[in-house]
Write a structure and sequence with these properties.
The structure is a single chain. Helix 4 packs across helix 6 and helix 5 runs parallel beside helix 6. The chain has 158 residues and is mainly alpha-helical. It starts with 5 loop residues before the first helix and ends with a helix. It has six helices and two strands; from the N terminus they run H-E-E-H-H-H-H-H. Strands 1-2 form a two-stranded antiparallel ribbon.
């Protein structure tokens, strides 16, 4: 086993950058350069693993360990849990009922649009609105129309 020095770490990163095709090992985005890439290592064993972009190193891979500990899962196999999480996210839940806060949450997002954009969204959905409506009116109409659309979609999935 070799323990890298600052100079040999740079050489390792250059070689690894080529091996990875200049892409982050987690998200697959292009890395800016070999020297800007983060050389990730196994924090319990010290072994180098790969090059990551700043976002994946800092906000994904770097935070997961802390999240597992805070969730009380320090003795779980993290790889298994993350695979289960991916399977969970990718499952088809379209036949399940919709959460009661969903329409409210989507309406909040809609409410952040400009009035002009709100009108465009509603008109595209076949709703007859114009500039005479207030933003609050448009949000109320959106809630009603969105709820109706979700009910229609849910009924067609049965």
């Amino acid at each position: 086993m070799t323990i890298l020095t600052k100079n040999t770490l740079e050489a390792w990163k250059q070689i690894q950058f080529q091996k990875q095709g200049g892409k982050c090992q987690i998200c697959g985005d292009n890395l800016e350069s070999w020297n800007a890439a983060h050389g990730d290592h196994h924090h319990a064993k010290g072994n180098m693993r790969g090059l990551l972009c700043r976002g994946c190193n800092t906000y994904i891979e770097g935070k997961i360990q802390g999240l597992f500990y805070r969730a009380g899962h320090k003795n779980k196999n993290w790889s298994d849990v993350l695979r289960s999480l991916a399977d969970y996210w990718e499952a088809d839940y379209s036949a399940n009922p919709i959460h009661p806060n969903f329409v409210r949450d989507e309406s909040k997002k809609f409410g952040k649009l400009t009035k002009e954009r709100m009108i465009k969204v509603l008109v595209k959905e076949g709703v007859d609105v114009d500039k005479s409506y207030s933003k609050d009116d448009l949000i109320s109409i959106y809630k009603i129309e969105y709820r109706a659309l979700l009910n229609q979609l849910h009924l067609s999935n049965r």
